[in-house]
Write a structure and sequence with these properties.
The protein has 2 helices and 7 strands. The protein has a 5-stranded mixed beta sheet with strand order 1-2-7-5-6, covered by helices on one side. The chain has a two-stranded antiparallel sheet with strand order 3-4. Helix 1 packs across helix 2. The protein is globular and about 45 Å long.
Length: about 150
């Protein structure tokens, strides 16, 4: 099913680092800022964001039995977004329109933390590499690579 997250690999030990690769299919959604209204913490999240975060968390499930606990972590994410029908490849090669890359990353970090299977909190991320692409040759989604750092 195209909208379901999937994972094709397991954690691999490379030298002293752990490498995890997640291929999540679905529509990447940004996560906005949290606001305090009348003393209550409100998170801007629609149903589409909840679905996207669940797809990412589901992709982490194969790591349930691997007892992964990472310290400092590098996160690398390639987002694949649908190309609007009105924008041909010759007109715009890269998605230089919303959603913002930093908000897409925020959703990924929180979703992996929500799974509780790879890291406890996204504050463990000390390095990020992220890119947006149009999903011209694949389904929309994200390829997420997680490396533990020494």
């Amino acid at each position: 099913m195209a909208s379901r997250g999937r994972n094709c690999r397991t954690a691999r030990q490379i030298g002293c680092a752990i490498l995890i690769r997640l291929d999540v299919l679905g529509l990447p959604k940004p996560q906005g800022s949290k606001k305090v209204i009348h003393g209550r913490l409100i998170e801007a999240s629609g149903q589409a964001l909840k679905v996207w975060r669940r797809q990412i968390a589901d992709a982490c499930e194969p790591y349930l039995t691997q007892n992964i606990h990472l310290g400092p972590t590098k996160l690398e994410v390639d987002f694949y977004l649908p190309r609007p029908k009105s924008i041909p490849k010759s007109q715009r090669a890269m998605p230089i329109v919303p959603p913002d890359l930093d908000k897409l990353i925020r959703a990924v970090g929180d979703a992996i933390g929500q799974s509780g299977l790879i890291w406890g909190d996204d504050s463990q991320i000390v390095e990020i590499v992220a890119r947006k692409h149009y999903a011209d040759d694949r389904e929309p989604g994200a390829v997420i690579v997680i490396n533990s750092l020494p």
